[in-house]
Amino acid sequence: MSIDMDQLDAMGESFAQLATNAPQQVKDRIAKYRYYCGLQHNSFFSFSNVIIEDLSNGCERFPVRVINDMDKTHLSAFKYANRVIDEHGLLNLPEDELAKCSCSSNISCIETDSCDCCASGNRYNSKGYLIADPQNEFSSIMECTKLCGCSMLCGNRVAQKGATFPIEIFRTTAKGWGVRSRAGIPLGAFIGEYTGLVLPESLANGDRDDSYVFETKWLDDQPICIDGKPAGNFTRFINHSCNPNAKVFNVNWDHKKSQLYHVCIYADRFIVKGEEITINYGSLWWKSKNEVICKCDYENCLYREVRTEQTGQSQERAEAQTDLTEQSQ
Ligand SMILES: C[S@@+](CC[C@H](N)C(=O)[O-])C[C@H]1O[C@@H](n2cnc3c(N)ncnc32)[C@H](O)[C@@H]1O
């Protein structure tokens, strides 16, 4: 049988066109099947248009590819930074205030019950996945620090070593850019740290565009914020969902116990290859962004209606949901 290559190309073109115009849920499903079948970008009936091969310029362990199959929009400029940038010197802390455990260098702290670091927050298992403790009211993790007796091979050093699961940035139908996984990510696995400029809260608010601002948790002082707009890594593109598959924890490994400035994102369930990674921005973010309509497509979405008044059914549902979330953290 002879194959008419022109006809094949035409079929590929119309498939690509169909896929491009399909609703997001259909696209997500197609993306998953493409990944399962091992289809590469730019292969036959691939509809992926890679516009940047590695946004991180080699900073990450994997290339951060940027894909736009939707329109001609390009990324707005920002500085790629895989660590927070502390221009105001807010994180210059005396070393003696750093937490430390007295474990020995030939054990992994997660294997003992006597490690002070592991005892003060949520813990990792032997694969480096988080075992979240619902009683931990600050959603915090205390990793071992440079003053600890253990070595860098200790299993209680995960987020400090950086992101390991490959991800890519893609243009969504209705939420601007988003992040999706290029591999399955197990429950509890570390995805990435939310990086950016470290700012006092007073500077983060005001006239600044706060769409990319994350407030960190300080337990005994003024809060600081991380602004991912001028500088940040791939996590700055993570969108909100009312049914998220990832969760934020505050992690400590180089500062005193009461200051939880590393904002780290972990899988909250198994994330399938090709699935968009989402977190819950929280009711306070949505309260301050009345003009934004949530496009998460979740059937029980809490913010899909215009929220001109802070009353009504959807607001009550949002607050009830937030109370539940806060209780479970
Ligand atoms: C931290 S940025 C996330 C990346 C962003 N989508 C982009 O293109 O750069 C937050 C902004 O993304 C958009 N966004 C995130 N989640 C959304 C959602 N569920 N529905 C609608 N817009 C969303 C909003 O414009 C929000 O201000």
Describe this structure in words.
This is SET domain-containing protein. Pfam families: SET (PF00856). One of its GO terms (biological process) is methylation. One of its GO terms (cellular component) is nucleus. There is one protein chain. The protein is of the alpha/beta class and 329 residues long. The protein folds into 3 domains: 48 residues, no CATH class; 230 residues, SET domain (Beta-clip-like); 44 residues, no CATH class. The chain has 6 helices and 19 strands. A hairpin with a 5-residue loop joins strand 7 and strand 8. Bound molecules: S-adenosylmethionine (SAM).
Task: Tell the overall outline.
Answer: globular
Order of helices and strands: HHEEEHEEEEEEEHEEEEEEEEEHH
Query: Could you tell me how far the N terminus lies from the C terminus, measured between alpha carbons in angstroms?
Result: 62 Å
What fraction of residues sit in β-strands? Answer: 15-25%
The strands making up the biggest β-sheet line up spatially as: 1-2-7-8
CATH topology of the largest domain, anyone?
A: Beta-clip-like
Structure classification = alpha/beta
CATH architecture descriptor name of the largest domain: Beta Complex
| Arithmetic mean of pLDDT | 83
**Main sheet, how many strands, which sense, barrel?**
4 strands, mixed
Radius of gyration over C-alpha positions, nearest whole angstrom: 22 Å
Q: Which small compounds were modeled alongside the protein?
A: S-adenosylmethionine
Q: Could you estimate the helical fraction of the residues in percent?
A: 10-25%
Helix segment tally: 6
Regions with pLDDT < 50 over 5+ consecutive residues?
Answer: 38-45, 320-329
- The count of DSSP E runs of length 2 or more, i.e. the number of strands, is 19
